[in-house]
């Protein structure tokens, strides 16, 4: 039996800055995971992934990442995505230095 | 030090001009990422977890002060004020913006530095003994031959699209400080019975998923034959190496599958063809290169300042005992500057620290610096009478940590904090181990102990050859750390043995503490190092300290 689809967000790196971005419900890109669209339908997720990946002059390496609904929008389920949305743990660099809300 | 001639400068300028055009076309959307990726990788530009990463080669680990100053400038102007020195004698910038990279490369070119072939399936930055040209135990300075290999391998048309990357290391000393046996190919300068200098060539070493110790391909290759011999070796592998499976594509697998004798026979056969095409020009070039590496004019002076500071100042004495190595010139010493202050990120230096080190090299060190694969910075030629002044300047810049070769002198790869391939973090584990042993104040009592940490099976942190190796893995979505014991990075190279089940992130530091404190109980006396005790006793007693519950259950 195929595995049940778990909720996902669409994420990538921005072409110019290289930093982590997420696709919103309005099909725009945000730097903040909590503003990302949490996709619960597999077909919808796959279609939007294809569209997102076409934006070659904006984004690099688009993929679906597991996420769950939290109090303030989607939250990561895996520690890799936790680091991507926060920044490294040895310096206060990356997203954490820009937007305290995403920490 | 090697200075670029007009050809080198023009080659690099043209290459940088091309890359600037490629970046512009990527930004305009004219190139897709699939088209651009191989081009940026050929120029050392990666895309990591949070940002782009630019990897700049420091050929055979040698830098002038002007070059170090330029590395500082890049850190300050286009990055976040620091750089990360790696186990391959490269420096990595973790936060460049795509549009700035061409300017960064042009700035590097002003001081003969580049990022070419720091990625991709090519011959990578040639690494060397970081004490080259200075060590008391050295037969010959291996850097001229390393520079020759750099020039030969740069843009070599036959070796731009190989099955996998190819790493070469060189050393001219008796003790191996370049982890020769963990390289695809290693060159070790030796003297034969007739008293001639030549090269022992090793092949098929490598860490990663399937760690292998390099084997002797030839015990003596003469000076004139070396470059064609290396070309023949890479060529044989490029032909018969596996391209069906990237995990079996490195030459270590080719050597393992065909056997060293078969590889040797193929290399000899290929060499006979290749040798004819060389025509001796490489030797003319080598002669020229050798002149660039003439030893500095060492001075003959008393060392009284050193001796009195050594007697009077215990902090200086401790630093001198730990961070100095024997120089071949009388009255001189090799200084290793630790960029591993307890609790800091191994291998990171701020722009200010880089400038301090550059100034020290300019003022006291014949303008030379080295970067070690152990992620420290070296002043290779220092007269002992200047050491008290150097120590004072290092202290002001927080660069005076006396821990070289000790438990807190940890190699750690970037791991999950930066690296897109990582399965777990390495940096915070290193930071916490160093901090813990600093608190215990046992470091100098423990003595020589190498801990090496990788954040995934690729083993950039050399964990296989650490006396204690730590490998970070992702076990069902949680960080988990596997310990190996008994690895050895010297010419007696050995791959560490797995101790048992892994440890969770919050268990790994206490486990290392139990293990090291256990060693203090097990050793015969302070002269028996951790590795020596492990070799004498084997795994069992160390395991008992790592897994006390298992021990209790079995009892
Ligand atoms: S060992 Fe793995 S995690 Fe560490 S730098 Fe290499 S690829 Fe990245």
UniProtKB/TrEMBL annotation, chain A:
Superkingdom as given in the UniProt entry: Bacteria
A Pfam family per the record: DUF2849
Region called Disordered, residue ranges: 71-103
Name of the molecule in the record: Uncharacterized protein DUF2849
Species of the source: Shimia abyssi
Automatic annotation (TrEMBL), chain B:
Nitrite/Sulfite reductase ferredoxin-like domain boundaries: 52-111, 347-396
InterPro entries found in the cross-reference section: NIR_SIR_4Fe-4S, NiRdtase/SiRdtase_haem-b_fer, Nit/Sulf_reduc_fer-like_dom_sf, NO2/SO3_Rdtase_4Fe4S_dom, NO2/SO3_Rdtase_4Fe4S_sf
Species, as recorded: Shimia abyssi
Domain of life: Bacteria
Protein name, entry field: Sulfite reductase (NADPH) hemoprotein beta-component
Iron-sulfur as UniProt keyword: yes
Ranges of residues in domain Nitrite/sulphite reductase 4Fe-4S: 119-272, 409-542
Protein keywords: 4Fe-4S, Heme, Iron, Iron-sulfur, Metal-binding, Oxidoreductase
Pfam families in alphabetical order: NIR_SIR, NIR_SIR_ferr
Family matches, as Gene3D superfamilies: 3.90.480.20, Sulfite Reductase Hemoprotein, domain 1
